[in-house]
Amino acid sequence: MYKGSTVTTYGGSYKFKNGKRYYRIGGPAKQYVRTSNFN
Would you say residue 33 has pLDDT above 60? Predict the structure, then answer.
């Protein structure tokens, strides 16, 4: 992930067991991005 890059998210954010929230993004593998990376 690069700061300022555009990411397509699918659905809402997911809350993982570690308590952090992630967005699922597209890709060949399941990739997640922490919501804290979004401004």
Answer: yes
